[in-house]
Design a protein that fits this description.
This protein is of the alpha+beta class and 127 residues long. It has a single domain, classed as TT1751-like domain (TATA-Binding Protein, 2-Layer Sandwich). Helices cover 45% and strands 28% of the residues. It contains 5 helices and 5 strands; from the N terminus they run βαβαβαββαα. It has a 5-stranded antiparallel sheet with strand order 1-5-4-3-2. A hairpin with a 2-residue loop joins strand 4 and strand 5. The longest helix is centred in the C-terminal third of the chain and has 21 residues. The radius of gyration is 15 Å and the shape is globular.
């Protein structure tokens, strides 16, 4: 699987708030929050599903991977999605280890697995 997704009974707002709190524990911050439903409706496209994309970053980790290989910048910042489906709130992310596999660098794969494990722990705490 290229992703890790959890379900919660929390509202989207509460899930995002919980994510922000737990991300700070891992020294990640939310750089940007994109409300896809709002943006599509603003552009005249009818889209009724609540769907948010959070772009998150740990600046020290970003520097570390970029110094190793500048192509990793294509995957930065990390994304976490929060959306409603089947009457539940879902929180998910593309696994950094899946993305970094395209670069074919064993050192980066180790770093990506560490970041992935930390972000998965954040999702698990936030549900």
């Amino acid at each position: 699987m290229f992703h890790y997704t959890v379900e919660t009974t929390k509202s989207i707002a509460d899930a995002i708030s919980s994510l922000e709190e737990h991300l700070k524990e891992e020294k990640f911050g939310v750089l940007w929050q994109f409300n896809i439903k709002e943006k599509l409706q603003e552009k005249g496209v009818n889209f009724d599903q609540s769907y948010f994309v959070l772009e998150v970053c740990n600046p020290h980790e970003a520097k570390r991977v970029l110094l190793e290989n500048a192509l990793v910048g294509y995957f930065l910042p990390c994304k976490i999605v929060v959306y409603e489906a089947e009457d539940k709130t879902k929180i998910g992310l593309p696994k950094p280890s899946s993305l970094i596999g395209m670069v074919n660098d064993t050192k980066l794969e180790e770093i990506a697995r560490d970041i992935e494990n930390r972000l998965i722990a954040v999702l698990d705490k936030s549900k």
